[in-house]
Each structure stands twice: as structure tokens, then as C-alpha cells.
């Protein structure tokens, strides 16, 4: 255990990212205490690490357990589904948190998460990004796989950047699918996997489209960074896309070797766009 930091607290959703955080923290000699959110992740996957399972409305109990286990730093990561606040049955601690969240409860994901982070910090916790624990998950700019986008795909990437930026400014989503200049779909509450599945039935004849996935303008980069992995590649291939463009230094690639290998095998390009490229290719939506 790292004595000056104590055990790492992890609020875990689904997918592989929570397990990458656990492995990296333990490799550094640090213990981890996990709060598994019911319905977001399978508790059986965390059997080898100290953990509790809480329903979404039991935020107060989760914080009590963090304090009891000496947690001062918290990572929030993994696939999650946003609950309806009218359906939550909050415990006493969660009810107090909801009052402090206030109007942010009715904003987009980033607005809500910023409010949650603020409350955690006011209560003495430090919220740290998963990329501070797992060092190799944010790729640098450049071509990640064997293939590169052609001129048509580059034009679709530019269109996608403009659309995703517009979505992000109103805190709606982090990605869009564009084919031949046409926006086949944008991400809202359903998530990337469902977006790709939906776009599979909207594919046009001719060159395949692109998935563009970026950080929202002004987003708190400690939580909910856009994420891709082998499942994303599988969905993009099934949707008939030509490739995927992500934001360098801002989009998590959960298992980079497996993700790149899957993209190469599927014949998809995978590129990480620099800040200069994002600026130069952005067009009016």
C-alpha cells in the first residue's frame, strides 16, 4: 500500500476499464476498495478485490464505506446508465447529495458529473482520473492501425468534428456517425454501442462512414472521458464504417493492442486527431 495516499476508492461501472484501474493500482503496491453499482457491473467480476454492491440510490452508504476503509482518493469509471431521478429511492446520504446537486440533476452528463465531483471534493475526497492510474490509455496523435483514412473519410471526419462539437456544447453526447457528408446518427443517452447498432440500418451505398468520438468542450476530464475498445470496433464494422477518429490525449483506448488488432482485421482505420487537426478540420454543421 502507498502509505501517503491510502487505498484507492473505485466507483465501478461495466466494461474493462475498472479492472485496468484495479490492476494498475495493485501493481504500484496500492490497495483498492470498490463500490460496484448494481445494474452497471457484475459483482462476481470483483470477487478478488474488497468491494460492496450498492444500488444507484445508496450513495450515502457508499461514502460511509469509503470513509470506513480510509479512502481519500476516488476514481469513477466504467460503463453506466443514467437513472431517472424520479425513480431513485435515495438513502439519507443520497438524499442530501441530491439536494446539493440541485439543478445539475436535470442537465447533461457532464453537468451532473461536475456537480458530483464538486460535492465529493467538498466532503474531503480527491477525484482522480483513471488515466492518472493507468498511464497508457490515452494515445498520442497519429495513425494507430495499419490503415489511414482517404480523402472522402477525411471530409466525413471534418463534418463529424463539427457535429460532435455542437452536441458537446449543449452537453448531449460525445460522438457521431457520418457517411458521405450525411449524419447517420448522433449519440444521446443510448451510448456508442447502441448508436452504431442503429446506424447499421441507415448505411448508404458507396464508401463507408466514420465514427468521430471527442471530449465535450469544457468537459471535466477526470470523469466520463470518451472510450473505445474492441467492442467499439466490432460495432463499427457491423455498421459498415470505414473507420474511427478519436481525440488524441482525450479518448481512452481500453486495450490498445487488442483494439488496433481488431481494427486492422476488420479493415477499419483508427486515427487519433491532434488539437491542430481538430481545429483545422472543423466545419460548420
From TrEMBL:
<feature type="domain" description="LpxI N-terminal">
    <location>
        <begin position="8"/>
        <end position="136"/>
    </location>
</feature>
<dbReference type="InterPro" id="IPR010415">
    <property type="entry name" value="LpxI_C"/>
</dbReference>
<dbReference type="InterPro" id="IPR043167">
    <property type="entry name" value="LpxI_C_sf"/>
</dbReference>
<dbReference type="Pfam" id="PF17930">
    <property type="entry name" value="LpxI_N"/>
</dbReference>
<dbReference type="GO" id="GO:0016787">
    <property type="term" value="F:hydrolase activity"/>
</dbReference>
<feature type="domain" description="LpxI C-terminal">
    <location>
        <begin position="141"/>
        <end position="271"/>
    </location>
</feature>
<dbReference type="InterPro" id="IPR053174">
    <property type="entry name" value="LpxI"/>
</dbReference>
<protein>
    <submittedName>
        <fullName>UDP-2,3-diacylglucosamine diphosphatase LpxI</fullName>
        <ecNumber>3.6.1.54</ecNumber>
    </submittedName>
</protein>
<dbReference type="InterPro" id="IPR041255">
    <property type="entry name" value="LpxI_N"/>
</dbReference>
<keyword id="KW-0378">Hydrolase</keyword>
<dbReference type="Pfam" id="PF06230">
    <property type="entry name" value="LpxI_C"/>
</dbReference>
